[in-house]
C-alpha cells in the first residue's frame, strides 16, 4: 500500500549545528556558542564565555548561513517536500530579553523560507532547539525562571507574525523530555548544576513546567495569528523493552518511559496526569499548578506530536527498586557509535505514541551516524546508511498501512553532514550530502553527494514504495 499523497518527505537540522555565522549581523551568543568540541565519547566542555584559544563548533557549523541556496537546491534535487530547521533565538533577540527584535536576523530567515517555498518545500520550524540566549542563562538562571516565559512568548509572537504566510508547521521545544532525562539539561533548558545545595530534581520539574506554559502560550498565540497553522511538541522517544519477563522488569520499561510520557501528557492532554504525579512521587519532587497555568495548559494543547527515534533500550529493576537501563540488546546489530539498530522499535514507538495520544505523528529525526570514507574515484558508498534508513522506513510504512497509525511525514536526521550535538564532532556523519570539514574545523566546506543521495531521491519519488538499494 502507498502512503497518502500529501505525506511529507525531507530532512531535519538545527541552527546550532548547521548555521554558523555565530555573531553575524547582530546575532547574540547562544548556549551552544560556549560549548567546545570534543573527541569520540568525551563530554563537551561548557564555558561561561567564549575563550579565544578554544574551538567551538557552532561558530561555523557547516555554514548554512552562506550556503543556504546551494543546500536547498540539493534538497530540492532529492525531491524534499519538507525541511525542518530551527530559528536561532539570539539571532532574533540577541540577549533574549529585549523588546525590539533584530531586523537583520529576521531578514535572514525570510530569505531561507522564500528559497524553500520557491522549490515547493514546506518549512518545519523549531522555535527552541538548543539555542537559548546565553544572557538569559547568566542573568535569569534560564528556565528555572518564569521570566523566560515572557521572553519566549515575545520571541514567538514576533516570528509568528513575521512568517505567518510562509510557515505552517511549528515545533516548540526540541526533545523537551530530555530536560528530565539528562543529568545536566544544558541543551534542552540551559541548566548546569554548579550549586551543590540546589535541589536538582525540583529544578528539573520547575524548568519543565515553565517550558510547558511557554509552549502552551506559543500554541495559543500561533492559532490566534494564523488559525491554519499547526503547532507540535517534540519528544525523544526511547522505545523500551523489559530485560526479562520478570514482572519487575516489565514494570521497569514503564518506569523508564515515565519522564517521556510526563512531557507528552502535559502538552497533549493539557494537564498533569497520574503518570506525571507518580513520577513526581517516585523522584521526590512536587509541583503546585496555579489555576491560571492550568487553564493555559488546557487551552494550549499541541496539534500533533513530532519525535526523534534512533534506537531502543532495555530496562530492569533491582530488588531495591533502582532502575537500570542498557542499550546492549543481544538481538540487534550496532552502529559505529555503539547504538543498537532496531527498526521494529520505531514501529512499536509509533503504535505506543498513537495509542496513547490519538494525535497525528511526525518523525522528525531518524538516522545513522557513521564514519564515511571517500573512495579514490571521489564516491561515498554509504550502503550501511541506506540499509538503516530503508529498514526504518519500511517499519514506518507497516505502522501506517497495517497498524493504522496516523503519520504526517518523515524527516531524517540530518540530510547533510552537520556538527554532532553530543560530541561536537564532524566525523559522526548522518547526511546524504558530505561536507568537507573535520573535527578541528578545517576543510573547504565543499558539498559532495553520497550514494544515499540518489537512493533517497528514489524513495521520495516513489512516495516510499521503492526503498531497495538497486542502482
Automatic annotation (TrEMBL):
A single BP term in Gene Ontology: carbohydrate catabolic process
The keyword Zinc belongs to this UniProt entry's keyword annotation: no
Keywords, alphabetical: Glycosidase, Hydrolase
GO cellular component, as recorded: cytosol
Molecular functions per Gene Ontology: beta-glucosidase activity
Active site: 365
Matches recorded under PANTHER family: 6-PHOSPHO-BETA-GLUCOSIDASE ASCB-RELATED (PTHR10353:SF122), GLYCOSYL HYDROLASE (PTHR10353)
Family under the similarity heading: Belongs to the glycosyl hydrolase 1 family.
Protein name as it appears in the record: 6-phospho-beta-glucosidase
Amino acid at each position: 500500500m502507498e502512503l497518502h499523497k500529501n505525506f511529507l518527505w525531507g530532512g531535519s537540522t538545527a541552527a546550532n549545528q548547521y548555521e554558523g555565522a555565530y555573531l553575524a549581523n547582530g546575532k547574540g551568543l547562544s548556549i551552544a556558542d560556549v560549548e567546545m568540541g570534543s573527541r569520540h565519547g568525551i563530554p563537551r566542555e561548557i564555558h561561561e564565555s567564549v575563550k579565544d584559544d578554544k574551538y567551538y563548533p557552532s561558530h561555523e557549523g557547516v555554514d548554512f548561513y552562506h550556503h543556504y541556496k546551494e543546500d536547498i537546491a540539493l534538497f530540492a534535487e532529492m525531491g524534499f517536500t519538507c525541511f525542518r530547521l530551527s530559528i536561532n533565538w539570539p539571532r532574533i533577540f540577541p540577549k533574549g530579553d529585549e523588546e525590539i527584535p533584530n531586523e537583520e536576523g529576521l531578514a535572514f530567515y525570510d530569505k531561507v523560507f522564500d528559497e524553500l517555498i520557491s522549490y515547493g518545500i514546506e518549512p518545519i520550524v523549531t522555535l527552541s532547539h538548543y539555542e537559548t540566549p546565553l544572557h538569559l542563562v547568566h542573568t535569569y538562571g534560564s528556565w528555572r525562571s518564569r521570566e523566560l516565559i515572557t521572553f519566549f512568548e515575545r520571541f514567538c509572537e514576533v516570528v509568528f507574525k513575521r512568517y505567518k504566510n510562509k510557515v505552517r508547521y511549528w515545533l516548540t521545544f526540541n526533545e523537551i523530555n530530555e530536560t528530565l532525562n539528562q543529568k545536566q539539561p544544558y541543551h534542552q533548558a540551559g541548566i548546569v548544576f554548579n550549586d551543590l545545595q540546589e535541589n536538582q530534581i525540583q529544578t528539573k520539574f520547575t524548568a519543565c513546567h515553565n517550558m510547558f506554559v511557554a509552549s502552551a502560550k506559543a500554541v495559543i498565540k500561533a492559532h490566534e495569528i494564523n488559525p491554519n497553522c499547526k503547532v507540535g511538541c517534540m519528544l525523544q522517544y526511547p522505545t523500551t523493552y523489559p530485560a526479562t519477563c520478570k514482572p519487575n522488569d516489565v514494570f521497569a520499561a514503564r518506569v523508564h518511559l515515565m519522564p517521556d510520557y510526563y512531557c507528552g501528557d502535559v502538552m497533549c492532554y493539557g494537564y498533569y496526569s497520574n503518570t506525571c504525579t507518580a513520577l513526581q512521587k517516585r523522584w521526590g519532587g512536587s509541583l503546585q499548578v496555579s489555576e491560571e497555568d492550568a487553564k493555559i495548559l488546557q487551552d494550549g494543547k499541541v496539534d500533533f506530536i513530532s519525535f526523534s527515534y534512533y534506537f531502543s533500550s532495555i530496562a530492569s529493576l533491582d530488588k531495591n527498586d533502582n532502575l537500570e537501563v542498557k542499550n546492549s540488546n543481544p538481538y540487534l546489530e550496532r552502529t559505529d557509535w555503539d547504538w543498537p539498530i532496531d527498526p521494529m522499535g520505531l514501529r512499536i514507538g509509533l503504535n505506543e505514541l498513537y495509542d496513547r495520544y490519538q494525535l497525528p505523528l511526525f518523525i522528525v529525526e531518524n538516522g545513522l551516524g557513521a564514519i564515511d570514507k571517500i573512495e579514490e574515484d571521489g564516491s561515498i558508498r554509504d550502503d550501511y546508511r541506506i540499509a538503516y534508513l530503508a529498514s526504518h522506513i519500511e517499519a514506518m510504512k507497516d505502522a501506517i498501512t497495517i497498524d493504522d497509525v496516523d503519520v504526517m511525514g518523515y524527516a531524517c536526521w540530518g540530510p547533510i553532514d552537520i556538527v554532532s550535538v553530543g560530541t561536537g564532532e564532524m566525523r559522526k556523519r548522518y547526511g546524504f550530502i558530505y561536507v568537507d570539514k573535520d573535527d578541528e574545523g578545517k576543510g573547504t566546506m565543499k558539498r559532495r553527494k553520497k550514494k544515499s543521495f540518489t537512493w533517497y531521491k528514489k524513495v521520495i519519488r516513489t512516495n516510499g514504495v521503492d526503498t531497495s538499494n538497486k542502482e
